[in-house]
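Re: that backbone. Tokens:
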């Protein structure tokens, strides 16, 4: 059983001395905003005793030193765009928000790297590096996410097939350990074989081992031109089967996503905009990048030919900025269109060759349990997003269900899909993390010995278990 001490008025006063009374929040109305992330069910929400907003690494260090001494739990928080309760203060205590640590310290054009504080939002990060003629390839999705959060969850996004995930670009981290000690891991380096790789251990650790305060991130030369192709198919299997054939021909798209027609139709209504294709039941959205018009045209023709050879019904090319913007806007707003009816978004990751079979099992589970499970995802990297819904979908309409119709099915549907994930050699999270919501399923895909090793690592970094306790696994 985890034993923490209560947050006393004296401890609050000490926090106020460290960062100023203005940035120590106890107002119940304001604190409520720090009790949850984007996970839809409110039953996992927990209110902290206090929210602190440090400005410097030294502030974070002093706060953690105090919390460790007094055995007060600390939950780090970035943009709170997570989907598994990763920043929920499960044991109350202190929420440490990094929102004030929002400076881009340096854009180093010579080394093609950027140094940024962990509270920098992606919506500010992308324009800043692009104005310097540089490019950060990963695009995790919600642009209100913060740098520290995307590193703490090793965020991915649809571009992973060509450019990799966030881990592939992090070169250095400044981290405050639970004891308050500050360590600097890595740097502006392309290679290192010097000791254990603590840098990579921090990436994806979900704020359980240390608080990331600053990151050094590798960039690339400015993004090339891009083009979107929409390819309709009669069924998912035909669409998915096309992807390895593209890669076999040494064509590596920027992104490849499979999207069922039903969610496109819902999003069309939501936005009052039209998807440019009506044929088929499933679409591949293939985004290409190239360095010239000639190269782009040649690449587009190659992709189109391979798709048609593999039973594509047509190929629509969004070859103007306005057409491309319309396609990408509809795709990016699918979640917004169905969000109010969504219980949970799974982010199972399976080998590419298993995608169609896993989605087939999703459809079987949907029929068995009478629950709508719209599913789409990254066809080229195996990341499948199944949405567990509290609604039915019939004849083009969303029909809300009562809790009695879905409440006792949620857990069983999760179990069915995670079992299938395991049988296909997959993992239960490809990019969202484990947090609270998925921790009881960790043993589905990771053996007991490996989980025990993780627990020992946690104990070594955080012997008092004050930092984001109750996430990933229980001690």
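Recovered sequence:
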């Amino acid at each position: 059983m985890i034993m923490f001490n209560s947050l006393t008025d004296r401890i609050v006063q000490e926090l106020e001395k460290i960062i100023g009374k203005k940035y120590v929040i106890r107002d119940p109305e304001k604190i409520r905003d720090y009790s949850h992330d984007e996970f839809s069910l409110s039953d996992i929400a927990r209110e902290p005793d206090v929210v602190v907003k440090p400005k410097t690494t030294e502030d974070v260090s002093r706060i953690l030193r105090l919390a460790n001494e007094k055995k007060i739990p600390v939950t780090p928080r970035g943009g709170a765009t997570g989907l598994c309760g990763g920043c929920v203060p499960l044991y109350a205590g202190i929420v440490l928000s990094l929102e004030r640590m929002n400076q881009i310290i340096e854009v180093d054009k010579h080394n093609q790297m950027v140094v940024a504080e962990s509270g920098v939002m992606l919506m500010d990060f992308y324009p800043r590096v692009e104005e310097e003629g540089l490019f950060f390839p990963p695009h995790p999705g919600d642009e209100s996410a913060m740098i520290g959060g995307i590193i703490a969850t090793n965020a991915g996004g649809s571009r992973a097939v060509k450019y990799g995930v966030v881990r592939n670009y992090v070169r250095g981290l400044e981290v405050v350990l639970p004891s308050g000690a500050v360590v600097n891991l890595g740097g502006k380096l392309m290679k290192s074989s010097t000791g254990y790789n603590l840098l990579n251990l921090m990436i994806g650790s979900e704020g359980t081992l240390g608080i990331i305060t600053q990151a050094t991130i590798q960039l690339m030369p400015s993004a090339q031109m891009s083009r979107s192709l929409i390819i309709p198919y009669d069924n998912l299997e035909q669409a998915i089967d096309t992807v390895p054939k593209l890669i076999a021909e040494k064509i590596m798209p920027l992104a490849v996503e499979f999207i069922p027609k039903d969610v496109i139709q819902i999003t069309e209504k939501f936005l009052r905009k039209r998807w440019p294709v009506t044929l088929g039941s499933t679409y591949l959205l293939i985004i290409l990048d190239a360095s010239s018009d000639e190269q782009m045209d040649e690449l587009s023709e190659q992709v189109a030919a391979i798709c048609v050879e593999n039973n594509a019904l047509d190929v629509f090319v969004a070859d103007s900025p306005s057409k491309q913007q319309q396609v990408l806007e509809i795709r990016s707003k699918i979640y917004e269109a169905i969000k109010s009816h969504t219980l949970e978004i799974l982010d199972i990751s399976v080998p590419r060759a298993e995608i169609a079979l896993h989605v087939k099992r999703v459809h079987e589970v949907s029929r068995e349990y009478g629950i709508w499970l719209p599913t789409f995802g990254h066809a080229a990297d195996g990341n499948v997003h199944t949405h567990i819904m509290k609604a039915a979908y019939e004849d083009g309409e969303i029909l809300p269900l009562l809790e009695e119709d879905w409440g006792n099915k949620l857990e069983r549907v999760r179990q069915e899909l995670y079992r299938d994930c395991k049988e296909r050699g997959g993992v239960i999270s490809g990019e969202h993390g484990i947090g609270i919501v998925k921790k009881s399923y960790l043993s589905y895909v990771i053996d007991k010995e490996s989980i025990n090793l993780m627990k020992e690592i946690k104990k070594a970094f955080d012997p008092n278990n004050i930092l984001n306790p109750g996430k990933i696994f229980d001690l």
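Residues 225-332 form a domain with the Alpha-Beta Plaits fold (CATH 3.30.70.2190). The chain has a mean pLDDT of 95.
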